[in-house]
Specification:
The complex is a heterodimer of chains A (443) and B (465). Chain A has 443 residues and is an alpha+beta fold. Helix content of chain A is 22%, strand content 40%. Chain A folds into two domains: 207 residues, PmbA/TldD superfamily (PmbA/TldD fold, 2-Layer Sandwich); 226 residues, no CATH class. In chain A, a hairpin with a 4-residue loop joins β15 and β16. The radius of gyration of chain A is 24 Å and the shape is globular. With 465 residues, chain B is an alpha+beta fold. In chain B, the strands form four sheets. In chain B, strands 1, 2, 3, 4, 5, 6, 7 and 8 form an eight-stranded mixed beta sheet that branches. Chain B has a six-stranded mixed beta sheet with strand order 13-12-11-16-23-22, with helices on one face. In chain B, strands 10-17-18-20-24 form a five-stranded mixed beta barrel. In chain B, β1 and β2 form a beta hairpin. β2 of chain A pairs parallel with β3 of chain B, so a sheet runs across the interface.
């Protein structure tokens, strides 16, 4: 059923809404999973949802719906009225008139959907076969899957703002385990993009297999402080955790590490972090969920905090411009960080390692939702990695924890590597980072 | 919603190319949330989820599709498209559909969907106030009430239609304490599949609010937790996350059936110390993790997983059961129609033992008392798990002493289960959300106070002395 946008805004006006907005997204996706030479699972999706907000008597109400029938618009208006009615805060509520300039664009590749299904399946068979053949110790390929999706979004509001974007992407994921004697190590790899030609099966298989096999024969190191190098994934994960404190709402509500730290040193001079969701990759966005234009901006420059992340509401409270970081479900927006680029340094990973007599190289950090208190900066995380001995990678480590404090740690960066990597999990381009000392527990 | 005859033609279209099982899952869910922050109602919203998932199985292979277009035409198109994944001849035809009825074991006198937003606000307001006024170092407080009403219809090629309606509610409290430099957050989240009467009569929300504020303040002055291998006493209730992570996930057919779990092929063998018995029970009346039927339309069950250390059963869904040659245990769950269902936990707990909690503490010379845990994760292939402690203390000479912060516990499921040497008699359950292959589902975790020998504690405070 087609959604009648005009009727929604007319009814909102008739009900005395001062302003309203509406974000409609249509998604299609397909995925296929291979297990032991058979297609174990195929799935497809076709969904639409509408997120609507309205201001009545200076209060904001909101609603999300996936049901579209003749009563949908009435349901939405009624829900917005009911939810707005109970709001007691006097915080500014804004439906946005629009930014002066938008870097309009999309991240869509029609050709992805024209590649025959059989060819996509063939890639999976090839990956599975090559993984099993790579080394006898690879005892299981738990799954190899391909997924693709496309999304069309339109944000409109009662001031006449209309923003559209279209996205597509695919991802290939493989999960394997390797076994030697009684030890099992598991690992996975993900590749994502929107051009299948960029995917190299042999490279994908080799990297995943090598990385997994290297983990076999692991032990626990002695518990003490070590010089530590975090690989690009782990570096980006901890930088994102640290920068979660840039949310202006937390600053305004006395619950951020960065209160009073704007334009102050929050990290070593070696650290520069730029946010640029305009980069053409799977994280592309040119407007946020409130309709504010997204621009490239420095978050941290030579260790100095350049900005907090604002929604329309928190920006109005501080009397500044919104920063294009507003994300929301139904109702109130909250600020989030888009795709970030960490400025690489000059030294290669090997050069950073060469000066460490005894240290730890971390490749995996687990359980961030349990072991990370980002608000305080304290963390203690289950990890895997390798010993560094006499400047080189030595035996693998598992079941160890790395603990520390984000403030202390990022103020004590020894070096930032030159090995920048595009990271899906970390939503970043980030190199390895070497730290002077961190506590690692094992034996 | 399609008619009975439309369901038949959707199922038969789905089965037209050789599928041996087809299932339609239709869901309409309305969720509401309202919150108070720092004394004022700051947010309120309504979300309506609506759609259908269609699954076809051929032996252990499956195809799954979902859509918001729940019309007969929409579902027939989906069935046709999905059936193209198989290229055999029809082996099964559904001739009739019979509606299966079951008893609702989770009655509600005051259904939450009929309670006004104002009444929910009045319910959470005193708790928010108690946290805010507990201590001037409490800098931010939030209380929220979230509830959902789901209407589900499952139609499958075994020839039955089943309807279920369920309502769940949860009060959420969080308090942030700060001394200007450090921040500590405490959380409480009592939930149930019940009416508003349960929240008003059986949940002392103000007492929980005091507990949360007290915990945040206590942890603010706590020292960094020491690290290394220690004897750890884990508190009752939410301490049960240890069993959930260390063992529960590794007993789900998702990983067991593919030999990807450390507990695959271990039925009848000793996998835990003799003092450990554990259960997953999806039938407990009005419990947060319960259901009348699972998301494949089968009745939920009480499944004994471990009895006196011996592995007795797994959590099995239809596909996992086919792979393992075992019967499903009524535990197939999904977050919504957007997920294909799979084996999941419901209300999982370690059963009562013989010691009192006081005896367990008194018997511990030097170690850690992890009073509450904040969640964790596990890799079922290796059994390696981690979880964080939100409130913890050092035990010295059989007494609970100074508070410590930033502790995480790590280990492998196989090892930790064998190292449980004392089990208390104070079993309690706590409510949470569990994320896995079929999305986030409400679960109860639970246990009495237990003691585990030789578990690795991560922290920033050096060696335990």
């Amino acid at each position: 059923m087609r959604f009648n946008t005009k009727k929604f805004f007319e009814l909102a006006k008739a009900h005395g809404f001062e302003a309203a907005d509406l974000n409609i997204s249509k998604g299609h996706s397909m995925s296929v999973t291979l297990y032991h030479g058979e297609i174990e699972n195929y799935s497809e999706e076709n969904t639409t949802d509408a997120v609507a907000r309205g201001i009545i008597n200076g209060k904001l109400g909101g609603c999300v719906t996936e049901k579209f029938d003749k009563n949908t618009i009435e349901f939405m208006i009624d829900s917005i009225e009911k939810t707005a009615r109970v709001i007691e805060t006097n915080d500014p509520v804004i439906i946005y008139k629009g930014s002066k300039k938008y870097h309009r664009g999309s991240y869509y590749n029609k050709a992805l959907f024209e590649v025959p299904f059989e060819e996509k399946k063939k890639i999976l068979f090839e990956i599975e076969k090559k993984l099993f053949a790579y080394d006898k110790r690879i005892n299981e390929v738990a799954s190899v899957s391909y997924s693709e999706s496309s999304e069309d979004s339109i944000l409109q509001n009662s001031y006449g703002l209309k923003l559209k974007t279209k996205k597509s992407d695919f991802s290939i994921v493989a999960q394997i385990t390797a076994k030697e004697k009684d030890e099992i190590r598991s690992n996975y790899a993900v590749f994502a993009g929107n051009n299948l030609e960029e995917f190299d099966v042999d490279k994908f298989v080799k990297e995943l297999a090598d990385e997994t096999l290297k983990k076999l024969g692991s032990s626990q190191c002695k518990s003490k402080k070590y010089p530590v190098i975090l690989n690009p994934d782990c570096s980006a994960t901890l930088i994102r955790a640290y920068l979660s404190s840039t949310n202006a709402e937390d600053v305004q509500k006395n619950s951020s590490l960065f209160i009073g730290k704007l334009h102050q040193q929050i990290a070593s001079k070696k650290l520069t972090v730029t946010e640029n969701p305009l980069t053409k990759n799977v994280f592309f966005d040119y407007y946020d969920d409130e309709g504010v234009a997204i621009n490239k901006k420095d978050i941290v420059k030579k260790g100095v905090l350049q900005t907090y992340l604002y929604t329309l509401e928190t920006a109005a409270k501080d009397g500044v411009e919104p920063t294009g970081n507003g994300y929301r479900g139904a109702g109130k927006a909250s600020a989030g960080l888009g795709y970030i680029i960490i400025k690489p340094g000059r030294k290669s990973e090997e050069e950073m390692m060469s000066s460490i007599k005894e240290g730890v190289y971390i490749t995996d950090l687990e359980g961030l939702h349990a072991g990370m208190n980002a608000r305080s900066g304290n963390f203690s995380l289950q990890s895997q990695g390798f010993m560094i001995r006499d400047g080189k990678l030595a035996e693998p480590l598992s079941l160890i924890t790395v603990s520390g404090n984000l403030v202390e740690m990022f103020n004590n960066i020894k070096d930032i590597g030159s090995n920048s990597k595009f990271l899906l999990g970390g939503k970043a381009s980030c190199p390895s980072i070497s730290f002077k000392k961190l506590f690692v527990s094992g034996q | 919603m399609p008619s009975k005859s439309a369901y038949l033609s959707i199922l038969n279209t789905a089965l037209s190319t050789g599928g041996d099982y087809a299932e339609i899952f239709i869901e309409e869910k309305v969720s509401q949330v309202v919150s108070i922050e720092n004394g004022k109602v700051d947010a309120s919203s309504v979300s309506r989820t609506y759609g259908a998932g269609l699954r076809i199985l051929q032996n252990v292979n499956s195809v799954y599709g979902y859509t918001n277009d729940v019309s007969t035409k929409g579902l027939l198109e989906l069935a046709k498209s999905l059936s193209n994944s198989f290229n055999g001849k029809q082996v099964l035809k559904v001739e009739t559909l019979k509606t299966k009825h079951f008893k609702n074991n989770h009655p509600a006198q005051e259904p939450l969907s009929e309670v006004s937003v104002e009444d929910k606000i009045n319910y959470i307001r005193p708790a928010e106030k108690v946290m805010r006024e507990y201590d001037k170092r409490i800098v931010r407080t939030k209380a929220a009430f979230a509830n959902s009403q789901s209407k589900i219809t499952i139609v499958n090629s075994n020839g039955f239609i089943v309807h279920d309606e369920k309502e769940r509610g949860r009060a959420i409290l969080s308090a942030i304490a700060s001394d200007g430099e450090k921040y500590e957050t405490a959380f409480e989240g009592p939930g149930a599949m019940s009416g508003f009467e349960h929240f008003k009569n059986d949940v002392d929300l103000v007492a929980l609010a005091k507990e949360a504020a007290k915990s945040a303040i206590t942890m603010l002055s706590a020292k960094d937790c020491p690290s290394g291998k220690m004897t750890v006493v884990i508190g009752n209730g939410n301490g049960g996350v240890i069993f959930h992570e260390a063992c529960g996930h590794s007993l789900e057919a998702t990983s067991v059936s593919k030999n990807l779990s450390v507990f695959s092929n271990k039925l009848g063998t000793q996998i835990a110390s003799k003092v450990v018995s554990a259960v997953d029970d999806g039938t407990i009346a009005n419990s947060w993790g319960s259901n009348n039927i699972d998301d494949e339309g089968n009745k939920t069950q009480k499944v004994v997983l471990i009895e006196n250390g011996i592995l007795k059963n797994y959590l099995i869904d239809t596909v996992g059961g086919r792979r393992m040659g075992m019967k499903p245990t009524g535990c197939s769950r999904r977050e919504s129609y957007k997920y294909e269902p799979t084996s999941r936990m419901s209300n999982t707990y370690i059963c009562n033992g013989k010691s009192t909690p006081e005896e367990i503490i008194a018997a511990t010379k030097l170690g850690l008392y992890a009073k509450t845990l904040s969640g964790g994760s596990v890799n079922p292939a290796t059994g390696e798990f981690n979880f964080g402690c939100s409130e913890a203390y050092i035990i010295r000479d059989g007494k609970i002493c100074e508070a410590v912060r930033g502790a995480s516990l790590i280990g492998t499921g196989a090892e930790v289960l064998m190292n449980i040497d004392m089990v208390g008699n104070d079993c309690a359950r706590s409510n949470g959300m569990c994320g896995s292959a079929s999305g986030y589902v409400p679960v109860d975790i639970g246990q009495p106070t237990i003691r585990v020998q030789n578990i690795l504690v991560g922290g920033n405070g050096g060696e335990l002395k």
